[in-house]
Amino acid sequence: MVEVLITVIKIVAIVFVFAMGVASLMTLLGDRKQSAKIQNRVGPNQAKFFGFSLGGIPHFIADGIKMILKENTMPNGANKWLHTLAPALIFFPALVGWAVIPFMDHYCTGSVRTLADYTEVCIDGEWKNYFSIMHSDAGLLFAFAIAAVSVYGAAIAGWASNNKFSLLGGLRSSAQMISYEVSMGLSLAGVLMIYGTLNLNEMVRAQGYLFGGWLPMWGIVVQPLAFFLFFLAGLAETKRAPFDLPEDESVIVAGYITEYSSMKFAIMQLSEYVATVFIAALIAILFLGGWQVPFLYADGIRFLGNHWQPFAENPDLWYYFTIMLRIGAMVLKVLFLVWLQFMMRWTLPRFRYDQVMTLGWKILLPLSIANLFITALILTIL
Amino acid sequence: MALVETRPVNRIKQNLWDKSYIPEIVRGLAITTRHFFRNMNPDKSQRSTFTREYPEVPTVYPERYRGLHRLMLRADGQVRCVACMCCSTICPADCIHIEAAEHDDPAIEKYPRVFVIDELRCIVCGLCVEACPCDAIRMDGGVHIPPYTERGAAFFDRDLLMERGGLSLAVQGGESK
């Protein structure tokens, strides 16, 4: 019973508070306020909460109310069943993927000791999975499978709308997502070879190793090219600019979202933002050390072989402090990556469609295969 | 044999590093990031936003801005205008309507019985002020034409324009003082 309750709390906190909260704030702060700041404008500030504009945050409540009150239209000749189903098919995978994202290491009921190779072991107790919804040994595969499923929603939405623009958008998004899925997966193969696990939490644990006592062996240090490739492919996978061809507004109106209105439109938009945050979380976990804070371990601070132990008389206090810092680090890394994705969006112009395909198949794919090959070679020699 | 004239274009040769667009992407990101953080400055005077928050903060007019019309008065409080039609003739927006009438005083030849400016048609060019031979019509600095909620309120008639007016230092219609 307690287990079920903990799971429910975890789902609410991670999916509905963190993922949805960040995503819906991103619709406002990321898309409208950030673009305004970059373009020397002020941005939305007229929706006020008791006379305070609060940085424009009340706008997203105003947007939500507006969306709910709008008429839900459906075009003539649309397939009613699929047209209604498609937003759910896009929204569902965007949320389910969060099941495997670890926000902190497992909680240790006993005391934690850090070994010489910087792995933490739990003594006189056991690991309790309190900070990720699901502890799965196939975590990365699950995340990829779920991310790939969302292409169905876009394709079905495009087809069911009975609109040429929607159909083009759906086709574009399926072609793009399938193309970039390949280089995304292949760029990660090198990372998998190094860490030797598909479990996301184990991967983050492995990144706690300090090379030479001072350099954290984060994924970006071990596999810089893979980080670059994965970041690009992730941008394309979540249909962010400069790869937002599926909703290329100057060419195909709004792509597969064209014929959607009211809350269905809002759900589709929101799930794109959730997917953005999800990719940011994956990048943070795979390449930026996830919840790891450099030099900070559950039993003290380690740097160049030295070991400080703050609150030595009360190790539990330090442990709780570490937990807070690590969750904060994870959240900050995700927010930074989301911010970076939005900066890319407001910096770069949109690609032409054939350029997107060329980049995916002729540049990213060979590069990721080369990266895989070189990594394998180095690992064999070492 | 016909020759086709061609002009060679000196294209900049791009090497592989340039073709990867990485330096240009980094440069672009640096520019947008610089703007982003400059405009996040808590000190609003340090930001580079151009937006005027108009209803909250009143707009500062340029020193030489002239907006709202008024009709000037004679020493005895009558309208200075002699209904010569110069202003309504030069008005490019055709927004001044004058009906002249004979004045009772034999010293004054004509006066405007009706003088209406359609402020919605006015383009604030100031040509009427330039054209006026006897300093009868002026436009005020610092004030813009007030907003209206109905069409009729945009017609400013003679009495309303005279209410805003004052005495002029100029000599009236060639009389010597």
Protein architecture, described:
The complex is a heterodimer of chains A (382) and B (177). With 382 residues, chain A is mostly helical. Chain A has helices at 2-38, 58-69, 80-96, 139-160, 164-195, 200-206, 219-222, 224-237, 249-252, 262-287, 315-347, 353-381; strands at residues 107-108, 111-114, 120-123, 127-128, 210-211, 215-216, 296-297, 300-303, 306-308. In chain A, strands 7-8-9 form a three-stranded antiparallel sheet, with no helix packed on it. In chain A, strands 1-4 form a two-stranded antiparallel ribbon. In chain A, strand 5 and strand 6 form a beta hairpin. The longest helix of chain A is centred in the N-terminal third of the chain and has 37 residues, at 2-38. The model of chain A has no long low-confidence stretch (mean pLDDT 83). Chain B is an alpha+beta fold and 177 residues long. In chain B, a hairpin with a 7-residue loop joins strand 2 and strand 3. The longest helix of chain B is centred in the N-terminal third of the chain and has 17 residues, at 22-38. The model of chain B has no long low-confidence stretch (mean pLDDT 84). Classes of the chains: A mainly alpha (382), B alpha+beta (177). The A-B interface holds A 34, 36-42, 45, 343-344, 346-348 and B 25, 28-29, 31-33, 35-36, 39-40, 47-51, 53.
Characteristic key phrases:
heterodimer, A: 382 residues, mainly alpha, three-stranded antiparallel β-sheet, two-stranded antiparallel ribbon, 62% helix, 7% strand, globular, B: 177 residues, alpha+beta, two-stranded antiparallel sheet, 5 helices
